[in-house]
Amino acid sequence: MHVASLSPDVCEAHARCWARIQDHLGSEQGQLDLASILVRKFRWTRDYAERAVEEYRRFCFLAACSGHPVSPSAEVDEVWHLHLQYTRDYWERFCPQVLGTPLHHEPGGRNTSQDRMFREQYAQTMASYQQCFGPPPEAFWPGTVRRFDAAPRFRAVDTERVIVLRRPHLSPLRMAAAASLIGVLVLLAGMPDAFALSAEPLDWNGPAFLKLYAFLFGVALFGGRWLSRSPGDAHGTNAASLSPYDVAYLAGGPRRVMDAAIAVLMARGAAQWEPSSRTLQISDPVPGLPAPLDAIAQHLRTTPDPERAARTVEGVLSPLRQNLIRRGLMLDDEAMRSQARRAALPSFIVFALGVAKIGVGLARDRPVGFLVLMSIVILFVGVYYLRKGWRVTRAGDKVVRETRLLHASAARAPRTQDMAIAVALLGTAAMAGTAYAAYHEARLPQRDSGSTDSGGGSYSDSGSSGSDSSGGDSGGDSGGSSGCGGCGGGGGGD
């Protein structure tokens, strides 16, 4: 049976269902090759089409065996639409013989309540997916906001009249790497001339020295960034051993912890956001709140304005911070300052070299304007590294990355019970499209581009989405299943 990609925790009946789905869709002996049709219809690559069909298989398995209504991503929905067109295969063979239950397609977009229902179903589908198959691939299972965006992503076009080009995608890291590579190649192209010069760089002519200075500039820039982060020692800490508030502190600092706590309080009904006054109304003390949620709730009760509360919440979170320092995931004040000095040192050395060469150039009546500009820039870089101060160690970053993988579905499509970890990883962007979106929208003017509301980065002393696909919103509900354990229990009907 083809069950390699399925969690070993599922029951035998569900494993047999998964094997039947694998055999029916896309196998060499299958009666319907959906991947080939998708390649012809959408001009997808063969690999992408086969991956889309694989995600459709997994969606069908969840529909039959998860025990709750499911909702697909836009890409999976396109495969589902295609399969539905082959009515004899879908209704006479696939549903009764493979799934063992009817699987109906319910179009969405009719009203707000239905849209909310599909969002909740999509989040639950993502959670069940992670339980059964591991983290959902973001290329096929984007976050809730992007998934239910109003703009359709798939359109039918006449390829005889128009040319369809693939949208280029370069991450900032790849763009920086490409720019660095180009810069190094340009510098290397001019280096042969340098070998014929004096061993004393201050005696080099202007063009040759500028090439050397540009190279050292890059070394100081990237070397300083590397030196700014302490390796740390996680002392055996892994993602599973951290609370959402630990993760929030590492990913976004005290403000992120407070946002995560506010999300939990609102989800529990213990807090309500008042848009008119831009304050939080905290209920009477809620018994049984874990630390630091209890302390934050008390802090917000006395300071209901989140902006004011954020400026003083760090003192409330001192025990949380000290625990992270003991575990090697963060630096204390003195260690952070020492690390910042090491990070700034290369930039200051390069700046001193530039100042010396400027003095030589002025003494010889040579133009030094461009060198002055570069020296000023590298001085600002050194000051930035000296003042920035990254508190989170590389060990802390590693644990945050592991947490993103462990909670991939919760971060992209959070359920109510996932709000703490989702906000910890993404900031208030995780609230977009949920019942708590008003708080996120209120935070945007102050922190629209700040790291508190972004998914990446880590906490530093100078400052601290869900990313989400369109297409027809749709939900699926199965008529029943075997009702055994694994992947969320028995089948659910509508």
Low-pLDDT regions: 446-455, 463-475, 477-494
Span of the ends, CA to CA = 30 Å
Residues in helix, %: 55-70%
Order of helices and strands: HHHHHEHHHHHEEHHHHHHHHHE
Secondary structure tally, helices: 19
Average pLDDT metric? 80
Tell me the overall shape.
globular
Main pleated-sheet profile: 2 strands, antiparallel
Strand portion, in percent?
A: under 5%
Strand order of the largest sheet: 1-4
Tally of individual domains: 3
* Structural Rg: 28 Å
Number of strands: 4
Give the structural class.
Answer: mainly alpha
What does the secondary structure layout of this molecule look like, with pairings?
Layout: H1 12-24, H2 34-42, H3 46-65, H4 74-85, H5 87-99, E1 103-107, H6 112-133, H7 144-147, H8 172-194, H9 206-227, H10 244-267, E2 271-274, E3 279-282, H11 293-302, H12 306-316, H13 318-326, H14 333-363, H15 369-388, H16 394-406, H17 408-412, H18 419-426, H19 437-447, E4 474-478
Antiparallel strand pairs: 1-4, 2-3
Helix pairs in contact: 1-3, 2-3, 3-4, 8-9, 9-14, 9-15, 10-18, 11-12, 14-15
Structure description:
The chain is mainly α and 494 residues long. It folds into 3 domains: 141 residues, no CATH class; 112 residues, no CATH class; 139 residues, no CATH class. Helices cover 57% and strands 4% of the residues. The chain is built from 19 helices and 4 strands. The chain has a two-stranded antiparallel sheet. Helix 9 packs antiparallel against helix 14. The radius of gyration is 28 Å and the shape is globular. The C terminus is likely disordered.
